[in-house]
Design goal:
Distance between the termini: 55 Å
CATH class of the largest domain: Alpha Beta
CATH superfamily of the largest domain: Alpha/Beta hydrolase fold, catalytic domain
Oligomer: single chain
Number of helices: 16
Number of strands: 8
CATH topology of the largest domain: Rossmann fold
Largest sheet: 8 strands, mixed
Number of domains: 3
Structural class: alpha/beta
């Protein structure tokens, strides 16, 4: 088996970059409808099949140079797939997705599904050791808020190994069990010495942030070639409905934003959007900034937030609640404006897709115009020929340049 291809497919599982795919991944496998020829044995559609079909599509899009007419067609068909998934028509959605991929580049090879047996075989021997080590950490006193945060993160990572392997568990699917065990052993050793094992850690890793008695799952990426002695810009990216903290890192253009972080050298953090809902929004954001500040030098004048769909709406809400802590923001396919009592906000870029059937420009543009008329520093862009989800990869390079180009007044 090609472990590289297998690893890519596992990383795409549950990070399928559209809300409908992500929602479907949370549902039980659905049997295909019986054919007109008569009854047949029900065939179950697996999440692996969803992931493999989507990954194949992503690969075909990476090198595609589409004419305007084809660009519009692909966006319409892709968002149509989203709606099919929302209505539970999984088999037809996959059929159309495969046909859409073939129309872009029929030579795109099929992706292999994750090898669950291999992952389970690697995980099972580590379970008792992970449970024992976690119990040892439970007995350690937290001598500072920084170490309490670090301890919570290490215990959460150990929990991934200590629990029985479950193909429905996103985090277990995305991590190499033996590599994770090697990492958490070293992390636990640092904690026992009173050290923060995440301070200055480079690369990409999964963690949690303490918010009172709750935990916020996050992915963190610090560019390996960045200088730890210099404060970096911080970009926080919130995914859309049905997704999770892995969606920006591995979906949306096959993890395009991570490549942009490497290029421009900014600290990238992608939290679970749902953890910021309701009254948790402001406190969760504060906890996130505090936790990141324990481990990295961050330029407080260059803290940027962006979000897609529901993540765009969350970004919109954070601007009203914590605008003084945000240097600039971008709301992609999700924006509703501000209440009259909202204080000054930082500069904000609002983007809508011309063909978006889910959050249409007819909803976003009036909210933008009202905010602009009220004196808020908002800009608006309408992206022609693009819909709800493929728009993200289309605009991310320009959005990143726009955010990083905002300087303190």
């Amino acid at each position: 088996m090609n472990r590289g291809t297998n690893g890519k497919c596992r990383r795409m599982l549950l990070t399928l970059s559209m809300a409908g795919f992500m929602l479907a991944a949370c549902l039980p496998a659905a049997p295909l409808p019986q054919s007109a020829a008569g009854p047949a044995q029900a065939v179950k559609i697996t999440r692996s099949e969803f992931a493999a079909a989507y990954l194949r599509f992503e690969m075909s899009m990476l090198g595609a140079r589409l004419a305007e007419a084809d660009e519009a067609r692909v966006n319409r068909e892709f968002d149509g797939l989203t709606l099919l998934f929302f209505t539970g028509n999984f088999s037809e959605a996959i059929r159309r997705l495969n046909a859409l991929t073939d129309s872009i580049d029929p030579r795109t090879a099929a992706a292999k599904a994750p090898d669950f047996a291999f992952l389970r075989a690697q995980s099972e021997p580590l379970r008792p050791k992970a449970g024992k080590l976690r119990a040892e950490l439970d007995a350690l006193p937290a001598s500072s808020p920084e170490l309490a945060q670090a301890s919570a993160a290490v215990k959460a990572r150990l929990r991934v190994l200590a629990e029985p392997f479950d193909p429905e568990n996103t985090t277990q699917l995305l991590m190499e069990p033996q590599l994770l065990w090697t990492q958490v052993e070293a992390e636990a050793g640092a904690l026992k010495k009173g050290l923060d094992p995440f301070k200055g850690r480079k690369g990409d890793y999964w963690s949690v942030v303490k918010n009172g008695d709750r935990e916020i799952p996050v992915r963190v990426f610090y560019p390996p070639r960045a200088d730890l002695s210099q404060p970096l810009p911080l970009v926080i990216a919130f995914h859309g409905a049905g997704g999770d903290e892995n969606m920006f890192m591995d979906g949306y253009g096959a993890g395009l934003i991570k490549r942009l972080a490497e290029k421009h050298k900014f600290l990238l953090v992608t939290p679970l959007t749902n953890a910021f809902g309701g009254t948790e929004m402001g406190p969760a954001f504060d906890a996130l900034l505090t936790a990141l500040g324990y481990d990295y030098a961050i330029d407080p004048q260059r803290v940027f937030v962006l979000g897609h769909s529901a993540g765009g709406m969350l970004t919109n809400g954070l601007l009203a609640l914590r605008g003084e802590k945000i240097s600039a923001a971008a709301c992609l396919c999700g924006f509703s404006g501000f209440k009259d009592e909202t204080r000054a906000i930082p500069r904000t870029l609002v983007i809508a897709g011309e063909l978006d059937p889910i959050v249409s420009p007819a909803r976003i543009e009036p909210a933008f115009k009202k905010a602009r008329a009220a004196g808020y520093p908002v800009e608006y862009r309408l992206i022609k020929n693009f819909g709800h989800t493929l728009l993200v990869a289309k605009v991310l390079p320009d959005v990143t340049d726009w955010l990083l180009g905002r300087r303190p007044d």
